[in-house]
Structure formats: C-alpha cells, structure tokens
C-alpha cells in the first residue's frame, strides 16, 4: 500500500469508521409493541417460512433475516445500523468500559501471540507475565502456529471474573517455557487516554469515545489536574467518533454555569427536549480549549457545540464530521440489535450540524477525501459554509450550521514537506510493532537503560531510523523521511511507552503537536 495523497483519505476514514457507527446513543430500551404483528410484517414472516420449508436448497434463513434487516436500514440514514449477535457483545463491552480477561496488550507476531506489555497492576502482570512472552497455550488450547481469528483468541483469554486460566508462555530472554496460572479479573477499557499538564497552568485531557465510564474518568482526571494547580483546560476530542449523549452532557455540566443550555433534541413528533447545565461544576471558571478534527463526531460535536455557543471556550482545529443524529439501541430478541435514529440534536444556538446524507454509502463516511481535495484541510478560507445557516452564540458571534462544528481557531493538517501521512503513521500500530521487535532482539540491554540513556540510544544514532526505513519499505508503505528528527522523536516516544509509561509517551508526542502548540501560543 502506498501512503500517498490517494490512499491517505481511505486510511483516515477506516480509522474512524467504528466510532462514527457508534455515534451519539441513548440507553437501550425494551418496547413491547415494537414487534407487534401487522399485515406487512406477516408478509415478511411468511416469505421466510416459505423459504425455510419449501425452497429446493438448504438455506440459512437466519442469514436471510440479517440481510433483510440490513437492507431495510440502508434505506434510512447512514447511522441506523444492524448489529449482529456476533458483534453485539464486543460493541457492548466497548461502550460499557470494561471486560473480564487476563489483561495484556499483544499482537500476533509470526503466528504467535506476543505480549507487548501486560496492563499495569492487571492479572497478567500480577501473575508474572512479562513483555516479550509468547503465549503458547490457554489451558490446553494451542495458540501458536495456526491461523487463529481474534474472536476465537479473545474467547480463550476472556472468561468469568475470578476464573483461572493456565497460560503457557515461552520467555525468549531466558529461553524457557513457563506455565503461569492467571486469575481473570475486570479489565478497564479506558475512554480517557491521558490527563497531564502541558504547561505549568494548562491541563490536557484526551477522550477517545463517550462510554459508560467516560464522565467518571474525566471527572477524576479533572480533579487530579486541579490539585496540580491548572488554571486552563484542553479537552482533546480529535478522532473521537462519539458514544453516549449523556456522557457529553455530564462533561459539559462540569464546565458550563447553572441553567446554561447544553443541547436540544427533537424527535419524529416534533417534541423538543432541552438539557441544561446544573449548579454543580468543577471547572466553571478558567479558560477552556476544545480540540477537534474531521473525525470528531456526534457526542464530540455536542460537547464542542455547547462550549462554543455559550462562549465558554475556544474551539481549535478543523471542521468536525457533521453528525447531528441520535440513536437508540433496540434489542431484537435473539442477541442482535438495531441502532435506530430516533431524534436530531441541535446546539444551544439552534444549529443542526448534521451534514447531508443523500449518499448514504462510502462517500458519506469518506468525506475526508473531498475535504482533502478541496483544500479545506489546509486553508480555513476553503471551508464551505451556507450563509443561510447563520446562528449566533450567547454573546452574538456568528456560527454556522449544516455540517460540523467550524473551529474558532483553524489549525491546518500537517503538511510540512508534503508529509501529510507522517504523524498518522508514527502514531499507528506499525510503529508499536516495529519497536516491539527492536526490543525483542535485545530486551536485557534495553531493560538496563534509564530515560537519559534510552534517549541517547534512539535519538543520537541513526540505527533505529534506518531499521524503521527498511521495516516501512517491507510493509509496502511509502513515507518521506526528510524530517528525520521528528520521526526519531516518535520512535523514541514509543520506546518510552513500552519500556516505561503512557504519561511520558504523551509528554513527548504532545511537544510536537501542532494544535497544542497553537493553544499555548494563543492562551
């Protein structure tokens, strides 16, 4: 795959697709009348029965029903989707914010499950599993030298809380095979990636989605930063495709003052619900900056719109995705579900930021390509807004509806030397895997290095840069290495992440971040 202007939009769109499908949702409900029979539904039921009983060949009618449901939803909007029984469990876990397992970050390296790093204080770390270990067996089930699907692999490592699995590992560093008993436990899936200070008075919180635990994670992070003396706050919603509407509202309530409007929703019957901030709030004073980009959608746009329309903070970045539809998850009774659009939401000024969806297919989700070609990602003047969709914020500033949140301060897509893909690649899994393999070659050596020695090892030599060039080339990715110092810095950050901690990793990459630099410049 060539990493150039042709393929970059596709890669970006794929990266955010799952988040966009999640969208802004309300809690699921059970409607007793939802499946009430009528003549049209009877017609569909009869057809399925005829095929099941009379059709000449054996047909899996369950698959026909799945196709039928998906086909019906395709005639609605792009965010009304069918979730099969197979997929629903993982979707639910992701939005619930935890699962029961052994707690390791891994990838399949040369047909073997390789542990990148056990989760800190998780079951595997407590049991003695180490970075670089190869997981050979889960109980008696072989996990190496075979094409194992991720869902099968996860099923062997997950289980009931408190249950025990016997993990057989090969430890390359000592050339020994070990059998380690791991007691499964609840493993959190973080929706707040990090919370740290980017300057003496500016705190930074990155939210990757709005799940059931997001508000609690955010509030805990906010209080921690306040104890460290922050006076200003950056909320990073870049590449956040949305999630639960209630979580975005709860976070807005921490920032907005009592009785300030957060969001309005309007359903099929025209019933409008308004949600207001309450008297509680742990950051109602102090400057706020919200970072958004073309992949910030739905609940992210609710939060950004509430901050912008109430003139509570500064929106920094690029125009957001443009999803103003609210979904509700409805169970279908067989383990599957439908996520159906049941309302539109409006920002406090009255804007709908839902972009047109006449084309409900790939072009709708891949609008990045259109923005890329139009120059919108590089020039604020290229952003197309409709003069007929003017609205005013609380203080009378003009804002626009019709397709995303337009930032107050524009930051272009990084394009130095034409390397639009550099930052994206350097924060991707390919770098994680490369660094793992470098560590794997001489783990004992790296384990002896402190921060200072590691920095000298990676940044003051070209050895790892040259090895990465070869690795990228063998992966079929074309990357311009003219800004080699930046690439080396990202490599160093990943070494730090795998050897030390996430906080140090983010401190390094945020020092290179164009939007963070802009915030510190305008503050």
From TrEMBL:
Which keywords fit this entry according to its UniProt record?
Answer: Hydrolase, Protease, Serine protease
Q: Where is the Tail specific protease domain?
A: 175-356
Q: Which Pfam families match?
A: PDZ_2, Peptidase_S41
What the entry lists under CDD domains is as follows:
cpPDZ_CPP-like, Peptidase_S41_CPP
Classification via InterPro entries = ClpP/crotonase-like_dom_sf, PDZ, PDZ_sf, Peptidase_S41A, Tail-specific_protease
Q: Which domain of life is it from?
A: Bacteria
Keyword Protease present in the record's keywords: the answer is yes
The similarity comment for this entry is: Belongs to the peptidase S41A family.
Q: What's the name of the protein? A: S41 family peptidase
Species for this entry: Flavobacterium jejuense
């Amino acid at each position: 795959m060539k990493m150039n202007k042709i393929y970059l939009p596709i890669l970006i769109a794929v990266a955010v697709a799952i988040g966009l499908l999640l969208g802004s949702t309300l809690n699921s409900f059970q409607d007793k009348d939802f499946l009430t029979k009528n003549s049209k539904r009877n017609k569909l039921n009869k057809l399925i029965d005829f095929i099941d009983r009379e059709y000449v060949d054996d047909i899996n009618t369950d698959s026909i029903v799945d196709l039928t449901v998906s086909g019906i939803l395709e005639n609605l909007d792009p965010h009304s989707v069918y979730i099969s029984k197979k997929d629903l469990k993982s979707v639910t876990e992701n939005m619930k914010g935890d699962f029961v397992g052994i707690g390791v970050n891994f990838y399949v390296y040369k047909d073997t499950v390789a542990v990148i790093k056990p989760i800190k204080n998780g079951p595997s770390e407590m049991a003695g599993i180490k970075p670089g270990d190869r997981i050979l067996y889960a109980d008696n089930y072989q996990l190496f030298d075979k094409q194992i699907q991720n869902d099968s692999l996860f099923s062997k490592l997950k289980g009931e809380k408190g249950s025990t699995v016997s993990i057989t590992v090969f430890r390359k560093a000592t050339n020994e095979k070990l059998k380690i008993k791991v007691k499964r436990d609840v493993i959190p899936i973080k929706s707040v990636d990090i919370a740290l200070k980017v300057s003496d008075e500016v705190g930074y919180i990155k939210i990757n989605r709005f799940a059931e635990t997001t508000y609690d994670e955010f509030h805990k992070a906010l209080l921690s930063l306040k104890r460290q003396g922050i006076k200003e706050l950056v909320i990073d919603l870049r590449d956040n495709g949305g999630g639960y509407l209630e979580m975005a509202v709860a976070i807005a309530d921490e920032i907005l003052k009592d009785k300030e409007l957060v969001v309005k929703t309007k359903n099929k019957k025209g019933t409008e619900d308004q949600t207001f901030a309450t008297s509680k709030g742990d950051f109602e004073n102090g400057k706020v900056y919200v970072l958004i980009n073309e992949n910030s959608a739905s609940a992210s746009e609710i939060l950004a719109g509430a901050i912008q329309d109430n003139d509570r903070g500064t929106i920094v970045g690029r125009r957001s995705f443009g999803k103003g539809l609210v979904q509700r998850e409805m169970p279908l009774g067989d383990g599957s579900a439908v996520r159906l659009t049941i309302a539109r939401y409006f920002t406090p000024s009255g804007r709908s930021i839902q972009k047109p969806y006449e084309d409900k297919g790939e072009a709708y989700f891949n609008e990045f390509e259109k923005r890329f070609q139009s120059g919108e990602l590089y020039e604020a003047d290229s952003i197309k807004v409709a003069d007929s969709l003017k609205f005013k914020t609380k203080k009378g500033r003009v804002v626009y509806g019709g397709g995303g949140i337009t930032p107050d301060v524009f930051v272009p897509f990084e394009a130095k030397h034409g390397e639009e893909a550099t930052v994206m690649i350097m924060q991707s899994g390919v770098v994680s895997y490369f660094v793992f393999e470098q560590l794997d070659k001489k783990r004992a050596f790296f384990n002896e290095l402190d921060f200072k020695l590691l920095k000298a090892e990676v940044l003051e030599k070209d050895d790892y840069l040259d090895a990465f060039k070869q690795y990228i080339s063998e992966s079929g990715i074309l990357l311009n290495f003219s800004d080699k110092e930046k690439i080396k810095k990202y490599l160093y950050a990943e070494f730090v992440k795998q050897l030390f901690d996430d906080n140090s990793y983010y401190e390094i990459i945020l020092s290179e971040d164009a939007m963070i630099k802009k915030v510190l410049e305008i503050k």
